[in-house]
Amino acid sequence: MVTVALLSNPSSTGNRDMLPRIRSFCAGRADIFHYEVERAGQIGEALRTIARVNPKVIVVNGGDGTVQAALTELYLGHYFDGPPPPVAVLPNGKTNLIALDLGAVGDPLAALERIITAARDDLSAHIVERELISLSEGEGGNRPVLGMFLGGAGLADTILYCRNKIYPIGLPNGLSHVLAGIAVMFSLIFGLHPRFLPPRPFPVRVSLIREGQPNQRLALLIVTTLERLLLGGKTSSGGGMRLMAVDQSPVAVIRALFASLAGRLGQRAIRGVHVEQGDMIRIESERSSVILDGEEFHAETGRPILLRSTAPVPFLRLAA
Hints:
Shape: globular
Structural class: alpha+beta
Distance between the termini: 28 Å
Order of helices and strands: EHEHEHEHHEEEEHHEEEHEEEEEE
Helix content: 25-40%
Strand order of the largest sheet: 12-11-10-8-14-15
Number of strands: 17
Radius of gyration: 20 Å
Strand content: 25-35%
């Protein structure tokens, strides 16, 4: 009987070294069904096949982008008869925000062993529910994309800067993120935007913050259904998406940074830092990018980005 279905993306950064170990671990085991995809377009067929073996848990082995593609297909493709099984995530990408939120840290193979052990017994103690972010571009009702963490304004520029300028250098992921963060803080605090630093963000209007107000420049925009904000702040309880935006001013950026270091970000009002919660968010801009779990989307004039929260879905969380 298959207990765990493992969906692997060989092109994920961590899998370049880890996948041979995972293949060896899964070989000959009747309780694991291992399916590898070469590109995101194959995930739908992978889930169609996985549905036939009816696993207790689906484990995604890849980065946040792979998780996003898997969640989109899992909940919009309707491959299962009835509700899909809970999803677990291995810590095997560049950022691992979703895996960290679900308690999966350290060696991916050790995390997989813990998931298999949990799946042999009653899973109820490990199940947590998270809403997803449903992203649509424009008003036409195109097929949405589902994810859990969106970065916009200056944060999206930072992610793209790190991806296009720093990752190619070949530095470790942690060091790459630190260097990108330093570059961004330097440009925001001192107002300098030379070609080797992230660009100045385009003005953007986020309806949940200030309905009807003119577009404004934001240093940081985060929308998430994860428990923790990117800068270490814990989100409030309750349903809906959690949004945090920081005005593009040195004072607001410094306030947000110190609140994060003190563990107070999102816990009390800070001038220039907006923390809100809601079921629908509209992002409008002349030209601005957002990043949902690694995938880039664009808000343009007459084509806003619409975010909606989904009903809660089950995930498997490993105890810390």
